[in-house]
């Protein structure tokens, strides 16, 4: 029983450490480094992130086909496509691969947990407990990975949005139309391997295929999941309908986004003081008290144990 508890605790702690301490995509430093590389070297277009390299059906798709059939995925399961797109995995095949991977890992780890518990001659209750915990862990690991990557990529797009708006303003003031400016900035930032550049290119490709700018930008906002982009779409639509200056409106909106980013940084700095209280009280202060008061406490205990000595 103790061995099973140790294995379960190790698995839970490992999953938490993976979720919390896994390396996240650098934002500002990465953007600066990519821009320097673009200036110093030849430009290479960033290939879209995919879960597959060729057109052949993958093993994970076969797993999904076994459980769901070759027909279209149910709407409830297809909702994962938005999060997959935010993480950089695009296409219908990515959804099938994602669910096939989750099912396979869940079953594989559940079977591993059952075999391990049987080899330890555990009781039936412990067998079911370890098998269920291992299966749940395997089922949730792909979700946690996609969730972490989507969160990091959305943050990168939010951080890059003010600079993107500045580039669009420069292009519009230079005489470009809005569609041409979006295409130019999308190509520029996609060459720097920025997520927002890839999304802008996808929106411009939709417009070139015949979609209205408003509809393409609305779909862009829905795909990215960034509230600031939704506000930008509304702002641009109202400006175009009322006949205002798009360049001036974009500049004002960029300044607003930059102020909002500064306020968010100040808010995070203030919250850090409160968050430091818990490790300070529960970990740092007890260690300091042990170091400072420990020798004196030992001397007092010795004196009380042998008053005559």
Question: What would you say this structure looks like, in words?
Answer:
The chain has 309 residues and is mainly alpha-helical. It has two domains: 2-15 and 41-157, no CATH class; 161-275, no CATH class. The chain is 80% helix and 0% strand. The protein has helices spanning 2-21, 28-40, 59-68, 75-78, 80-87, 92-119, 124-173, 178-191, 195-208, 213-224, 227-242, 246-275, 277-305. It is flat and about 95 Å long.
Features:
single chain; 309 residues; mainly alpha; 2 domains; 13 helices; 80% helix; 0% strand; flat
Give, in order, the helices and strands.
HHHHHHHHHHHHH
Shape: flat
Low-confidence stretches are 21-36, 38-53
Task: Give helix % range.
Answer: over 70%
Round the Cα radius of gyration to an integer and report it: 27 Å
Individual helix count: 13
End-to-end separation: 48 Å
Q: Tell me, rounded to a whole number, the average pLDDT.
A: 76
Helices and strands: which structural class? mainly alpha
**Whole-number count of domains:** 2
Biggest beta-sheet profile = none
Number of strands: 0
Strand proportion, as a percent range, falls in: under 5%
Short description:
This protein is an all-alpha fold. The protein contains 13 helices and no strands. The chain has two domains: 2-15 and 41-157, no CATH class; 161-275, no CATH class.
Please give the structural blueprint.
Blueprint: H1 2-21, H2 28-40, H3 59-68, H4 75-78, H5 80-87, H6 92-119, H7 124-173, H8 178-191, H9 195-208, H10 213-224, H11 227-242, H12 246-275, H13 277-305
């Amino acid at each position: 029983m103790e061995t099973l508890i140790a294995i379960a605790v190790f698995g839970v702690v490992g999953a938490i450490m993976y979720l919390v301490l896994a390396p996240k995509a650098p934002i500002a430093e990465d953007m600066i480094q990519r821009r320097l590389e673009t200036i110093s070297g030849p430009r290479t277009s960033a290939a879209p992130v995919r879960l597959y390299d060729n057109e052949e059906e993958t093993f994970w798709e076969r797993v999904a086909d076994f459980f769901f059939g070759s027909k279209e995925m149910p709407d409830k399961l297809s909702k994962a496509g938005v999060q997959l797109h935010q993480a950089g995995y695009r296409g219908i095949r990515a959804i099938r691969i994602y669910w096939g991977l989750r099912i396979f890992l869940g079953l594989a780890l559940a079977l591993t947990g059952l075999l391990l518990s049987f080899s330890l001659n555990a009781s039936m209750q412990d067998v079911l407990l370890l098998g269920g915990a291992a299966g749940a862990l395997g089922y949730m690991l792909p979700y946690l990975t996609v969730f972490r990557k989507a969160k990091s990529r959305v943050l990168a797009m939010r951080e890059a949005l003010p600079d993107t708006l500045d580039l669009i303003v420069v292009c519009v003031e230079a005489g470009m139309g809005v569609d041409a400016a979006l295409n130019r900035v999308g190509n520029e930032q996609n060459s720097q391997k920025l997520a927002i550049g890839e999304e802008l290119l996808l929106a411009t490709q939709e417009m070139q295929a015949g979609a209205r700018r408003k509809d393409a930008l609305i779909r862009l906002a829905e795909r990215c999941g960034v509230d600031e982009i939704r506000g930008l779409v509304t702002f641009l639509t109202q400006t175009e309908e009322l006949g205002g200056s798009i360049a001036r409106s974009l500049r004002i909106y960029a300044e607003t986004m930059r102020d909002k980013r500064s306020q968010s940084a100040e808010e995070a700095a203030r919250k850090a003081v409160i968050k430091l209280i818990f490790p300070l009280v529960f970990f740092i202060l007890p260690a300091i008290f042990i170091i400072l008061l420990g020798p004196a406490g030992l001397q007092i205990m010795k004196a009380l144990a042998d008053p005559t000595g």
